[in-house]
Amino acid sequence: MSIGERIRKLRMEKKLSLTELASRAAVAKSYLSSVERDLQMNPSIQFLTKIAAVLNVSVESLIVDPQKSPEPVDDEWVHLAKEAMDSGISKEQFREFLAFQKWKKQSDEEI
């Protein structure tokens, strides 16, 4: 869900018209409309702060999609990463290893 979609959803839940939200937040109605319709995909933090205050939510809740919260990392992955760190493997070496594995997989699929 985009920032605009979240703003629109919250606005509708609060039973506010576009004009009313724009007026209370002291932002241009046309700009708010373009954000809600995803024509403006990167609104300023100042804009988001004003909108969040009227909607009584945090700015973060407008930016972060709660449906895309990261899945928890299972203990085995944490253990493997710790083991790699303890053995002296650098982040760059690990990135190179991953890049090689991706290349190898792609090469195998092309054959």
TrEMBL record:
Keyword set includes Transmembrane helix: no
Gene Ontology CC entries for this record: cytosol
Coiled-coil boundaries: none
The organism of origin for this protein: Domibacillus iocasae
A GO MF term: DNA binding
Domain HTH cro/C1-type positions: 7-62
DNA-binding recorded as keyword: yes
Official protein name in the record: Transcriptional regulator
Keywords assigned by UniProt, alphabetized: DNA-binding
Domain Sin: 64-102
Lineage: Bacteria, Bacillati, Bacillota, Bacilli, Bacillales
Domain of life the protein comes from: Bacteria
